[in-house]
Amino acid sequence: MATTDTQLTETLVDDRMQATVTPLADRSWLVLAIAVLPVPLTSAVFIGLAAVGGQQEAYGLPIAYLVYGAANLVTVGTLYALLSTDERSAVFRFGVPSVREVGWAVVAFVVGLGVFQVTSLASAALGYELQGLSYSLGSPTTVAMVVVGAVVLAPLTEEILYRGLVLGVLLSRGVGVVAAVALMTGLFAIIHLPNFGVAGTLFISVWGLLPALVRLRFDNLSGAVLMHALNNTFAYLVVVGMGWA
Q: What is the pLDDT of residues 209-229, one digit of tens each?
């Protein structure tokens, strides 16, 4: 029987990924310990701020984005220091994206907008509503915090931790591509549950498949980061700025 295009694509993905994830085979312990570290780090910062202030304070979302982005950056720096040269090459898989990869990233971003609409309707049918973004972009300081935390740091570091580290470790352990992507995306969605609620987590559990597809298709994190950054720019700047939140 002739090999189908789908089989050829899966073979190419398997071969290409195998060459880059093999060095991670003995690093399975990093999956949870490192990937989820930004969550307790962020919580620790706000607990510390509340302790210093003498009371539990309600901090705005832009500050939360900045703290979370910084926690991710510290985590990625720690990860880089722990890995060997070969392991870094497998996790920090960055290269100059081709025009085709950029095109895929843009299309994935647009598809993600459709995913948002569909999952919003599904969540509403189940009795869950998406949480709005309650902040204003009237202050340059607020805009700067959102840009640095949510548009720059979060897409870059989350792609390294999830589409780089977690996906790489799962594949290196012999988990199939489909199962590895599903498990990685599930973990990625769960860590967002406290801040995004059930509806937001449902959206992310589907949306998270898109950057994974771009990453696997081109064996490069650059397109996935671009797609992620486009999504966050639209969600945290355009939507809020236009008053659609």
A: 999 999 999 999 999 999 999
